[in-house]
Amino acid sequence: MDQILYEAKDGVAVITLNRPEAANAQTMALLDDLDAAWTRAAADQDVRVIVLKANGRHFSAGHDIKGGGPAPDKITLESIYEIESRRYLEYTLRWRNVPKPSIAAVQGKCIAGGLMLCWPCDLIVAAENAQFSDPVVHMGIGGVEYHGHTWELGPRKAKEILFTGRPVTAEEAEKVGMVNKVVPLEELESAAMELAGQIAKMHPFALRQAKRAVNQSLDVQGFYAAIQSVFDIHQTGHGNALSDGGYPIMVRLDEMKKQLKSN
């Protein structure tokens, strides 16, 4: 079964995460296929808007840390850095800067690495049951690799979410501006597609320039540099785990399991 589905129609490309049996946890292959789908949509002159959605109850449980391979023969900080810098940093920044508007449609749980799929999108439509969280402090890591927390939530709320690991509800996410719109679960896909259809009617060059203007304004404020520098801070968490003689992020899954079962 394909882990990523792709369809383009009426100026809208729909990219679908398709690992519902695993709550759309991200294998390396899934991320590679997802990047290929983003690249395909960016190159298609008929596509004006990109919608990212997910099949199943949950948008994404984050990285498949139970064995999402390929894994290096020996886990070292160098091997971790190489894998993550490509798939967790290079990919997400590329998706953010695709010169076409993008919309994420989020339902259920969006945990840790799931954030790095929806945060690069320009707009987020959330179902009423959506919950966003980054509980990786429980695992000895200071936050997910694409560290958009401060920009998405504001500094104090970002610290609260990281320090406690608690989820942010769709309603709360909308209040702080992380989510554009909250709709009933059964209306999620239609709401995202309706919004995409409205945007697709706009002039494509003007859309590109509008997106570039906002993104560059954030970059001037330090977004791009911050994302890259905090990625290196993230890697110190891996280094600390390795120096302790273990690799707790591979085995301490209790917090994520609790969140998935709590629905």
UniProtKB/TrEMBL annotation:
<protein>
    <submittedName>
        <fullName>Enoyl-CoA hydratase</fullName>
    </submittedName>
</protein>
<dbReference type="InterPro" id="IPR001753">
    <property type="entry name" value="Enoyl-CoA_hydra/iso"/>
</dbReference>
<dbReference type="Pfam" id="PF00378">
    <property type="entry name" value="ECH_1"/>
</dbReference>
<dbReference type="InterPro" id="IPR029045">
    <property type="entry name" value="ClpP/crotonase-like_dom_sf"/>
</dbReference>
